[in-house]
Write a structure and sequence with these properties.
Blueprint: H1 2-18, H2 22-31, H3 36-52, H4 60-80, H5 86-108, H6 121-145, H7 162-179, H8 183-204, H9 207-239
Length: about 240
């Protein structure tokens, strides 16, 4: 089963990411289902599937399902492009393709999926921790730091919401380092961030900004460590 899943996902990745150029994507977005590159794209997926499956025609039905569904999903995506956030649409598009692949695998190598596993204590604990690391921590930090007004620094050129995304990513890294018992990774991450931040602080020469950044950094890492250690502790109780 695992081998078949890997083969089908590999074929999908090659067709969707490796052998599809930006020119094709732009043409498809402009001409929708009338784009010749849409059909070239589907043909490439067909050839790639046949290659990874070593032209084993035992899988003809699965190949047919994947190809037809891929065309339908891509056409729907093209027509929703202007109505849905691009990042969300990309995620939904790839999720739909993966679901089709898993359904095809189930046809040839039946497997049981117990939905109860999504609601067991370990899974719920992990999902809760991820939510705390990302959204909850961001709100906590925003609430605490909001007492200091640094509007004079907000006018500087910066990517929109970049700080929030950086904070979420660094906390996720810290969390993963902790639950995999690689605490040295936390130290490396702090050191790496300090190096990048040093340039900003040296240019600013402002004690207020330095303190603001240090408070934000320590809060971010502190919350990540708190939730990481808490996850490990509660997981230990569950496994007893």
């Amino acid at each position: 089963m695992l081998t078949l899943i890997i083969k089908l996902i590999l074929a999908h990745l090659i067709g969707d990411f490796l052998l599809q150029t930006q020119k094709w994507v732009n043409h498809k977005e402009t001409h929708k289902h009338k784009s010749k590159f849409l059909y070239w794209h589907i043909l490439i997926h067909l050839v790639t599937l046949l290659l990874v499956l070593q032209f084993n025609f035992e899988y003809w039905l699965g190949v047919l399902i994947i190809i037809i569904s891929h065309y339908i999903i891509d056409v729907i995506k093209l027509y929703l492009k202007s109505k849905i956030n691009t990042r969300l649409l990309f995620g939904l598009d790839q999720l739909a393709h993966i679901i089709v692949i898993l359904l095809v695998v189930k046809i040839y190598e039946p497997y049981k999926f117990n939905i109860d596993t999504l609601f067991n204590a370990k899974t719920l604990l992990f999902l809760t921790s991820i939510l705390c690391i990302t959204k909850v921590s961001s709100i906590i930090m925003k609430t605490i730091i909001s007492k200091w007004d640094l509007k004079e620094y907000n006018e500087e050129s910066s990517l929109e919401n970049a700080g929030a995304y950086i904070g979420i990513l660094e906390r996720l890294f810290v969390f993963m380092f902790i639950i995999t018992n690689h605490w040295e990774g936390v130290g490396f991450l702090i050191a790496a961030k300090s190096v990048f931040r040093f340039g900003d602080l040296s240019k600013a020469k402002d004690r207020k900004l330095t303190e603001y950044i240090l408070i934000g950094t320590l809060l971010s890492f502190g919350l990540a460590i708190l939730f990481g250690v808490g996850y490990e502790y509660v997981l230990g109780l569950i496994e007893k």
